[in-house]
Structures are given as C-alpha cells and as structure tokens.
Amino acid sequence: MESVAEEPRWLNECELEAWRALAKLMFNLPTALDAQLLCDNKLTLFEYFVLSQLSMTPGRTLRLSELAREIGSSLSRLSNVVKRLEQRGLLYRAPDPENSRYTRATLTDAGWDLVVAAAPGHVAAVRRYVIDGLTEDQIKVIREVASHVMRRLDPCVAEVRPGATDSCQPDHAGSVG
Predict the structure, then answer these.
(1) Is the pTM of this model over 0.90?
(2) Distance between CA atoms of residues 173 and 52, nearest Å
(3) Staple partner for 100: which of 12, 92, 95, 96, CB 3.0–4.6 Å?
(4) Cα–Cα distance for residue pair 33/36, rounded to 1 Å
(5) What dihedral do alpha carbons 131, 137, 140, 144 form, nearest 10°?
C-alpha cells in the first residue's frame, strides 16, 4: 500500500514575512560586519569572533573543541581559520597539557593587540546596525529569539538562562564580542 505524503505545513503570511526578514538579516548583517572589520583591521567577522573569544578566557587559551562550541562553529571550519590566524602570528596551537588528544589555541600578544584595536570599530558597527534605535525590551526579545533558535539547532548550545537580567542592564560594559 502506498503511503500518502503529508501536506507541508506552509507558512502563513505573517510567518513568511518574519522568515524573509530573518533570512535577509542572516545574509546581510554578516556581510556588513565583515566589510567593516576587513576594511579597518584586515579580519573577517569569523576571525574576529575567534580572537575575541580567546581574549575573554583565562590565559587567553581554549581547547579548539570548546572554542568551536563557544563561537558556534564546526571544528573543521575553526581549524582552517585557526591555521590562517596562526600563520599571521595572532595565535598558536599546542597540545593540551591535561590531555594531549586535544589541541589548544592561545592568543599571542599580536592577536591581543589586534582584537583590542578592532573592538571599538566592531562595537560601533554592531551598535549602528543592530542595537541603537532598539528599546531594551526589543533587545531582550532578540536575545530570547536567538537563544530559542539556537536551542532548536543544537540542544547542547549554551544559552542565556531564563530570567537572567544582569547582562541586560543599561550601560553594561566589558565585552568586546
């Protein structure tokens, strides 16, 4: 007996508009942020995320698997970018002394200097393109929606705890990511 295929759950008009707006954002925002970083610092957005994440960790060092998880990347993509950043002298790789099956990346002083130099322009671009003009409630909704979608993509992804408000207070400082 032939099975009857279920009819797809088509998007209604409101859902379709939301999806198209999100898709345009996913395509256009990284391009704009890449352009700013490439022009000002000769870094891609992805490279900046790698350096920035390392700059915010104790000892400026992380296992590559943890770094991939923190920035939402596959290990293979991260490995290719880390190799290029290492060739530029911005970080170095070494076996993890606790378990040599793992490799760690450590930010060099040159990498630190570059991420510190890039951070103001990057933050200004993020503010210009995303943050400025939004209300505090809209910013919280973006955080909640992004966390929800990331949980759907990967249930192991670290997320903002429901009810956590300490990082959403006005004038919160300290992050260059």
Answers:
(1) no
(2) 15
(3) 95
(4) 5
(5) -120
